[in-house]
């Protein structure tokens, strides 16, 4: 195309760097500026400064064929790549020096297929694949034998490099469709990770958690624990609390810490044990308080609290699994984050709930509850170690029913066990 930027001398080897050729750049108003290829890590440019481009017009043989070029320093000292040239004085395989610039360029007059143009002291060639990072800065055009300086483009908001082209604009409809597709993909991922025995009404509100890395890692941890140790409760009972009532029918929330770690005890409800296992000490103390707080309450002779759960009492432990005979063995593995999400959803999407927070652990976990939206009752834990510090005589069960009735909700029949 008549744009030979200087061929190397006969005594010049391919491995050495030739002298950088100078080319005259014709600026606006007829002014002429010197223009050179710069060494690696420097920008190829004109007197217009960083981001300034070069432009001219194609010769008659390629009229109408416009190529967008870009300044781009070479990232390696030498490039051993194949050149497909047309009208070029370059051989088909050439090591280019470490200066020059790469650009996109049509293959000829009327052609639409784009390639890469490499300019160097030996001339120019097409289809060179130049390595490097980042998009080309489309700031120049190849036009003829002259390089005309063009002013630098102003940087758009949010662009780090003034010469970086903006991404293709998307219509509002396209953006909405992208967001919908992302949401659908997350739902599909979550559906694959829904654990066994998870209540149907609870799936959608908590589906966002199932696809999160912490939950996937947590499920993997519990699965590995079950391979090596005995883990309570069994898989189908870990989420019993989601099977007893609809998530929107929850009226009372009692927060526990972690499951009982003895055989046949834990079954997915805090403080509750399977029949015919006798009630643990903490549950016995709960029954004692009930006998003085709720008229007509009689010890049921078992420790299964499913009757409460079916009425809308969420019996939720902070940690949902445990290794046999090792209390807190699954602590800080991810269950706390998941159950925090449960409490958070109820806090934000329900109203008039009664939260019973027994002990400092439960009180800390429930510290973010909106007390203008819900009712919170706090006291000591029913454990034998702390039951006399406020649990006995707290009358939380009768107070809970009073608060529910004020909110227009049915009270809990605490005797229905």
Automatic annotation (TrEMBL):
It catalyses: a 2'-deoxyuridine in single-stranded DNA + H2O = a 2'-deoxyribose 5'-monophosphate in single-stranded DNA + uracil; Hydrolyzes single-stranded DNA or mismatched double-stranded DNA and polynucleotides, releasing free uracil; a 2'-deoxyuridine in double-stranded DNA + H2O = a 2'-deoxyribose 5'-monophosphate in double-stranded DNA + uracil. One of its GO terms (cellular component) is nucleoplasm. The active site is at 258 (proton acceptor). Its EC number is 3.2.2.27. Residues 243-404 form the Uracil-DNA glycosylase-like domain. It is found in: Mitochondrion; Nucleus. Residues 1-54, 148-172 are annotated as: Disordered. It comes from the Eukaryota. Its main location: mitochondrion. GO terms for molecular function: damaged DNA binding; ribosomal small subunit binding; uracil DNA N-glycosylase activity. Interacts with RPA2 subunit of the RPA trimer; this interaction mediates UNG2 recruitment to RPA-coated single-stranded DNA at stalled replication forks. Interacts with PCNA; this interaction mediates UNG2 recruitment to S-phase replication foci. Interacts (via N-terminus) with FAM72A. Belongs to the uracil-DNA glycosylase (UDG) superfamily. UNG family. Excises uracil residues from the DNA which can arise as a result of misincorporation of dUMP residues by DNA polymerase or due to deamination of cytosine. This is Uracil-DNA glycosylase. The gene is UNG.
């Amino acid at each position: 195309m008549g744009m030979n930027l200087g061929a190397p001398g006969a005594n010049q080897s391919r491995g050495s760097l030739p002298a950088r050729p100078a080319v005259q750049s014709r600026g606006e108003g007829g002014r002429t500026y010197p223009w050179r290829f710069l060494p690696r890590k420097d920008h190829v440019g004109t007197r217009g400064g960083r981001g300034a481009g070069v432009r001219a017009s194609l010769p008659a043989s390629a009229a109408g064929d416009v190529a967008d070029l870009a300044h781009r320093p070479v990232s390696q000292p030498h490039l051993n790549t194949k050149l497909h040239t047309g009208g070029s004085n370059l051989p088909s395989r050439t090591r280019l020096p470490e200066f020059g610039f790469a650009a996109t360029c049509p293959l000829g007059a009327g052609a639409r297929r784009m390639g890469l143009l490499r300019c160097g002291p030996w001339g120019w060639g097409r289809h060179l694949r130049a390595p490097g990072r980042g998009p080309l800065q489309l700031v120049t055009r190849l036009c003829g034998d002259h390089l005309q300086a063009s002013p630098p483009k102003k940087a758009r908001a949010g662009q780090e490099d003034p010469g970086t082209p903006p991404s293709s604009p998307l219509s509002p409809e396209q953006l909405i469709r992208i967001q919908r597709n992302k949401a659908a993909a997350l739902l599909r991922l979550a559906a694959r990770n829904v654990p066994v025995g998870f209540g149907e009404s609870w799936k959608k509100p908590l589906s966002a958690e199932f696809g999160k890395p912490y939950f996937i890692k947590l499920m993997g941890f519990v699965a590995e624990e079950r391979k090596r140790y005995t883990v309570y409760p069994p898989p189908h009972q870990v989420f019993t609390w989601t099977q007893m009532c609809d998530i929107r029918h929850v009226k009372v929330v009692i927060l526990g810490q972690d499951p009982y770690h003895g055989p046949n005890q834990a079954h997915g409800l805090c403080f509750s044990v399977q029949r015919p296992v006798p009630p643990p000490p903490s549950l016995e103390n709960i029954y004692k308080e009930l006998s003085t707080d709720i008229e007509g309450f009689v010890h049921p002779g078992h420790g299964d609290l499913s009757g409460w759960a079916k009425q809308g009492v969420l019996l939720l432990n902070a940690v949902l699994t445990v290794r046999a005979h090792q209390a807190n063995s699954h602590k800080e593995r991810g269950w706390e984050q998941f159950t925090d999400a449960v409490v958070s959803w109820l806090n934000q999407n329900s109203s008039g709930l009664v939260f019973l927070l027994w002990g400092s652990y439960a009180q800390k976990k429930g510290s973010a509850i909106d007390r203008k939206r819900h009712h919170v009752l706090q006291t000591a834990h029913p454990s034998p170690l702390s039951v006399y510090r406020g649990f006995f005589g707290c009358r939380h069960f009768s107070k809970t029913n009073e608060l529910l009735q004020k909110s227009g909700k049915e009270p809990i029949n605490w005797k229905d066990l």
